[in-house]
């Protein structure tokens, strides 16, 4: 079931502060692309291939360090993967982790897939999954954009979130529940969240969205 958040009055939402380990967005909070600026330095070993990375990495923090140093956002691809393109069956496939490692260029769902599948391979006990966040839709270059994907994992009962294309290299957490993170993230992004869902596969969610449109 999709969890829907209560809508806050604009006046109240404007005065809420972001708590925990978040900081406010700097420029254009509506975009899923990172702010321009210097990259993080990657402190890990040199890795020639994805299989070599799987042999080296053992924790999300290592994967996160690589993401912060290597990930690049593809604005043109964001439009190709918009709600408008998916509804018409014209969206390209999501990058496989091995190909993403070779060329870490993409959008939120490419990055989330890489993170989730990599954590599942190197630390399956952390129960990695996807968090799909549905913002109020916005229109860019004639395309409807609303869904954002992030990777999530657990340590005990605590929830952690990372592989966020807007803030690559950040790990959010610990949080006692997914809703606590989503509420803060809506304030960080300065975009109203209308729904969210933690899912095991991005594929099922995309199919479900297509079926909902067909039945509308």
Notes on the protein architecture:
The protein is α+β, with helices and mostly antiparallel strands and 216 residues long. It has one domain: C8orf32 fold (Roll). The protein is built from 9 helices and 7 strands, in the order H-H-H-E-H-H-H-E-H-E-E-E-E-H-E-H. It has a 5-stranded antiparallel sheet. The protein has a two-stranded parallel ribbon with strand order 1-2. Helix 3 (60-70) packs antiparallel against helix 7 (108-122).
| Total number of domains | 1
SS-based structural class? Answer: alpha+beta
Distance between the termini: 17 Å
Low-confidence residue ranges: 1-21, 205-216
- The global form is globular
CATH class annotation:
Alpha Beta
How many individual β-strands? Answer: 7
Helix content: 25-40%
Q: Largest beta sheet, briefly?
A: 5 strands, antiparallel
Overall residue-averaged pLDDT value: 82
Secondary-structure element sequence? HHHEHHHEHEEEEHEH
| Alpha plus pi helix count | 9
Alpha-carbon Rg, integer: 17 Å
What is the CATH topology classification name?
Answer: C8orf32 fold
- As a percent range, the share of strand residues is 15-25%
Concise overview:
The protein has a single domain, classed as C8orf32 fold (Roll), CATH 3.10.620. 38% of the residues lie in helices and 21% in strands. The protein contains nine helices and seven strands; from the N terminus they run αααβαααβαββββαβα.
Name some characteristics of this structure.
216 residues; alpha+beta; C8orf32 fold; 5-stranded antiparallel β-sheet; two-stranded parallel ribbon; 9 helices; 38% helix; globular; disordered N terminus; disordered C terminus
């Amino acid at each position: 079931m999709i969890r829907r958040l209560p809508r806050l009055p604009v006046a109240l939402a404007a005065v809420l502060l972001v708590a925990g380990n978040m900081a406010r967005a700097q420029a254009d909070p509506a975009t899923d692309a990172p702010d321009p600026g210097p990259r993080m330095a990657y402190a890990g070993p040199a890795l020639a291939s994805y299989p070599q990375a799987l042999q080296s990495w053992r924790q999300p923090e290592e994967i996160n360090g690589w993401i912060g140093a290597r990930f690049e956002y593809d604005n043109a691809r964001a439009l190709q993967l918009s709600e408008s393109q998916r509804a018409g069956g014209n969206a390209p496939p999501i990058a496989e982790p091995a190909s993403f490692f070779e060329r870490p260029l993409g959008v939120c769902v490419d990055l989330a897939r890489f993170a989730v599948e990599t954590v599942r391979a190197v630390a399956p006990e952390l129960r990695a999954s996807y968090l799909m966040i549905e913002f109020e839709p916005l229109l860019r270059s004639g395309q409807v954009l609303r869904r954002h994907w992030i990777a999530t994992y657990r340590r005990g009962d605590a929830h952690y979130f990372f592989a966020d294309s807007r803030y690559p290299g950040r790990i959010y957490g610990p949080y006692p529940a997914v809703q606590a993170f989503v509420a803060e993230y809506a304030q960080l992004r300065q975009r109203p969240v209308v729904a969210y869902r933690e899912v095991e596969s991005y594929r099922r969610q995309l199919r479900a969205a297509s079926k909902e449109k067909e039945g509308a």
